[in-house]
Amino acid sequence: MIKAFFVDFYGTVVHEDGEIIKKITEIIYDTGRVENKSEIGAFWWNDFQSMFLNSYGDSFETQRVLEEKSLVHTLAKFCSTANAKELSRYMFEHWIKPPIFEEYKKFFASSPVPIYIVSNIDTADILKAIEYHNLTPAGVFTSEDARAYKPRKELFELALRSTGLKADEVIHIGDSVSSDVKGASSVNIRALWLNRFGKEIPEGVESITDLLGALDKIM
Question: Is the pLDDT assigned to residue 200 strictly greater than 80?
Answer without folding.
Answer: yes
